[in-house]
Design a protein that fits this description.
The chain is mainly beta. Helices cover 3% and strands 54% of the residues. The strands form three sheets. The protein has a 16-stranded parallel β-sheet that branches. A 14-stranded parallel β-sheet has the order 2-5-8-11-14-17-20-23-26-29-32-35-37-39, covered by helices on one side. The two termini are 42 Å apart.
């Protein structure tokens, strides 16, 4: 067992250090930092060898712990990693590498955990064996910047339980988060994913507000900022309240020609806002604004999206509203557009916005009441 209660620098050189359990800042009042680095060409390794062994940074309330993995350093864990249990914990990847399996940030109420992966040679891999959860019952934050890389094999959940908060910030050219499994932004807690300044995220699926009590927001902002959903399925307000904003030249791409659902289940409430010249969703096959729940779509300020099929107010009991506003703003359906299928559908075109359906537009049922619109808006708003 390795227990660090005061700040230490661990020069690894080219050696391998095997440990079972590792605790950095275990007891209340402890402020401890463990720095792993190596100047040797072959680097060095701290290996948590036991799948049942723990690595905990910030165990008890009042404990503040940090692990910094710098150039030449490698931290490889077979057992679970907890960045802040009841205390405060930080994992800095600064030119080094970290591999882990089950990873939780902010496990207990009051726990506050942060992972910073910063710099072009900084990498972290979450392999199968347990999910990545930022904010289990506490608060968890993942910052990925300046060319840092994160690869996740299992599901990632930002904001797991009611009362938890999970955030991921991905920024900078060359910065990339790739996930072979879906990312849930707001499971039953509150989740936030921000992609800006050229950051890129690629995932097998994305659900914003996965469960009934979930609250989720995703922002893709600025030229070069990109969210790629390789599995082709993007849900905004699946069962809870979710918001997706694409702004100022940001791009969301569905690599398999997939579909977007805004307001999925009967309890789901979603907003999707595409705003600013160059902001778009690429390779879109179908979009449902209000599938079974409440959906709101806004295309404004010169943004544009094109889809094979567009439905506003799809199923019985659903409510969908669409607004296309401003010069250069465009909503295009290459095959069909339905305003109110079996649900309530409203479309507003204002201020020079353009709507086009190459084959036809079908208005099956149009219910445009202020009360309905206000109810939809109140349900889909995610509290700050």
């Amino acid at each position: 067992m390795l227990v660090v209660s005061t700040s230490q620098v661990f020069e690894l050189n080219d050696k391998i250090y095997d440990v079972v359990d590792m605790y950095v800042a275990n007891a209340p009042g402890e402020h401890a930092t463990l720095t792993l680095s190596s100047t040797h060409p072959s680097g060095g390794l701290v290996h948590g060898i036991d799948p049942a062994g723990y690595c905990v940074i910030g165990e008890e309330a009042g404990a503040i712990g940090t692990i910094s993995v710098r150039s030449g350093g490698l931290l490889s864990l077979e057992g679970p990693l907890t960045v802040a249990n009841y205390g405060r914990g930080t994992l800095n990847v600064q030119g080094g590498r970290v591999t882990a399996k089950a990873t939780v940030l902010g496990r207990a109420p009051g726990g506050d955990g942060t992972i910073n992966i910063v710099g072009a040679s900084s990498t972290m891999l979450i392999s199968p064996g347990g999910n990545l959860i930022a904010g289990y019952d506490g608060t968890g934050t993942i910052n990925l910047a300046d060319g840092g890389r994160l690869h996740t094999e299992p599901i990632t959940q930002l904001g797991f339980n009611l009362g938890s908060f999970g955030t991921a910030n991905v920024s900078g050219a060359g910065t990339q988060w790739s996930s072979n499994s879906p990312i849930w932004v707001g499971a039953s807690g509150t989740g936030t994913l921000n992609i800006f300044a050229g950051g890129q995220v690629e995932t097998a699926g994305l659900a914003i507000a996965q469960w009934y009590l979930g609250r989720g927001t995703v922002l893709v902002e600025g030229p070069g900022s990109r969210l790629t959903v390789a599995g082709g399925a993007l849900g905004v307000g699946e069962n809870g309240a979710g918001v997706l904003t694409i702004a100022d030249g940001g791009t969301v791409e569905l690599s398999d020609g997939g579909h977007v659902v805004v307001g999925g289940s009967s309890t789901g409430a979603g907003q999707m806002v595409i705003t600013g010249t160059g902001s778009t969703i690429a390779n879109l096959r179908d979009i449902w604004v209000g599938q079974h729940g409440c959906g709101m779509l806004t295309v404004q300020n010169g943004a544009g999206i094109t889809s094979d099929h567009i439905t506003v107010g799809a199923e019985i009991g659903s409510m969908g509203t669409a607004l296309v506003a401003g010069t250069g703003s465009q909503l295009t359906a290459l095959h069909s557009m339905r305003i109110g299928a079996s649900g309530h559908g409203t479309m507003t075109i204002a201020g020079g916005g353009q709507v086009e359906a190459t084959n036809h537009i079908i208005v099956l049922l149009l219910v445009a009441t202020r009360a309905a619109s206000a109810n939809c808006a109140s349900r889909a708003v995610v509290p700050a």
